[in-house]
Amino acid sequence: MKQDRILLAHGGGGSLTHELIERLFAPAFGMKELEDSAVVEFAGQRLAFTTDSYVVKPYFFPGGDIGKLAVCGTVNDLAMQGAQPLWLSLGMILEEGLPIADLERIVASIKAAAADVGVKIVTGDTKVVERGKCEGLYINTAGIGRVIADVSSTRVRPGDAVIVNGNLGEHGVAVLSRREGIAFQTSVISDCAPLWSLVQSALISGAEIHAMRDPTRGGLAVTVCDIAAASGVGIRLQESALPIGAEVRGACDLLGLDPLTIANEGKVVMVCRGADAGRVLDAMRGHPLGRDARVIGEVTEKPKGMAMLRTAIGGERIIDVPTGEDLPRIC
Amino acid sequence: MKQDRILLAHGGGGSLTHELIERLFAPAFGMKELEDSAVVEFAGQRLAFTTDSYVVKPYFFPGGDIGKLAVCGTVNDLAMQGAQPLWLSLGMILEEGLPIADLERIVASIKAAAADVGVKIVTGDTKVVERGKCEGLYINTAGIGRVIADVSSTRVRPGDAVIVNGNLGEHGVAVLSRREGIAFQTSVISDCAPLWSLVQSALISGAEIHAMRDPTRGGLAVTVCDIAAASGVGIRLQESALPIGAEVRGACDLLGLDPLTIANEGKVVMVCRGADAGRVLDAMRGHPLGRDARVIGEVTEKPKGMAMLRTAIGGERIIDVPTGEDLPRIC
């Protein structure tokens, strides 16, 4: 490790997060890939298992709260592995002084989100820490799902199409708009949503889907860089095709952020056989969360392991994995 | 809820923790019992699923650290359900400024503890929060196991024997001895240990084991009160039979704590058919973690749902569930 202390950037989802995983966690635990979930075999069937901690600040934000996020985020990690979400665990770390009314509202939100996706919260744990030692509450959810499709960031091939189901950057901008010290006026609300039913409709459409990732921490930039690296292919995104709303663009300009690096919590980047793109788009557009689905790029042979952006004026630039220093903590 | 804000006692493992679960979480998520793990059916087999967050302060303590604790605690929750631990998830919340060397030591400790019990860490997540917003690091582990025995706090019957595998109160006292502000001299080290192989040897001994619980937060007091309430029986502990070391007794006197309420992290309270107590003791004593196993009490018909302590001088007192206010945070 280059640093001798943990930096905020180690949690940003960029290259410093990758370094932490690759140099510390992966060697210790023998993890090979940076997939969203592990797949193990139990009683002869494939089971997906994943975990995420949620430390979003503030814990209520436009379009959701930390409870909804904690359900959607983990359910989506299972969905990205082609797994039907079945059960969640719920670990809460509460700050002394947290208003019970806030906790009740968050629990109601967890209940609603779980019911929405048909997943059951079956086990839980609560700890309380002294005032000031967390920010209201931190939540961990782990999830178990049943794998019904073979998808992996390593299965992407030249000729594949890159599809996203709608507008980018809305979760990150919505959270930032309420952040102490930088609050600004916007009507952007978080896209936080459970993606399983959308993903399922694409999976059963008959299309050959190779990989799925939800562009959360580090945004679309990290997602396409990860897939390009895992499959040893080039990914070329068309800037003109990227669905980014005017308000998100404006907020990014204001804050000096690249919309490609802003987190989403209700988006899936799906990579399928090029010839099947229409089938995936049809399936997605028939679902409320996929009405704005579109092809945003293609997979090429070269440059191997890299993602490029074809700009609106005809140029091309490399999409870099951000270090994480410029990525706000939004999940 | 009687309070309108979260108190430290809500996390103490006593009656306020119970209130939080019974009034808020259980109604929202339809949880029926306060078992350590959920049991669900996957592919026709019973799977146990559990979660725990660890916020122990300080994160290094005599006999272990937060990493070892995070593996043992979750593995033990699975074991208490009669489940062989198979896989763990690892969610880390790191504080900005945490020395990487400390993190490396904790990761090594997680790795060693997992290898010791034969469980695999298959998925993980890392978040970083601003300096001061956690205490070095908080860890969540969720675990999956294969259920091989039918045990439940509701299956205890009059005539059963109550057994524990060794000295009580050592984890809590070891952690407190290093706590800022109240540090004191002691050679007590935490009993933190993975209990699965000990439990397994008792399970395969042929003894009829009805219930198992690890007396962590709230100690033996909460454990026996919970079991008595769940099974609608009386539990009578013999004070003279309780294995409590002189140093733990001394520390409890010093701090005004009841050793029955102090947390353990390497102890199991096993309730078996009275006639099978010898068989369980034999199995336990053949294992390094069970050499000091002994019968500490019996199950009676009355008083229904209550636990009593027969004191050394021949009296009897009710064992109360502490509210949690006097319980130090030690896990």
How would you describe this protein?
The structure is a homodimer of 331-residue chains. Chain A has two domains: 35-147, PurM-like, N-terminal domain (60s Ribosomal Protein L30, Chain: A); 161-318, PurM-like C-terminal domain (Phosphoribosyl-aminoimidazole Synthetase, Chain A, domain 2), CATH 3.90.650.10. Chain A has eight helices and 14 strands. Chain A has helices at residues 15-29, 66-80, 100-117, 170-176, 196-203, 219-231, 246-255, 277-285, and strands at residues 38-42, 45-54, 60-61, 64-65, 83-95, 120-129, 137-147, 161-164, 209-213, 234-238, 269-272, 294-300, 306-310, 316-318. The radius of gyration of chain A is 19 Å and the shape is globular. The relative contact order of chain A is 0.19. The mean pLDDT of chain A is 93.
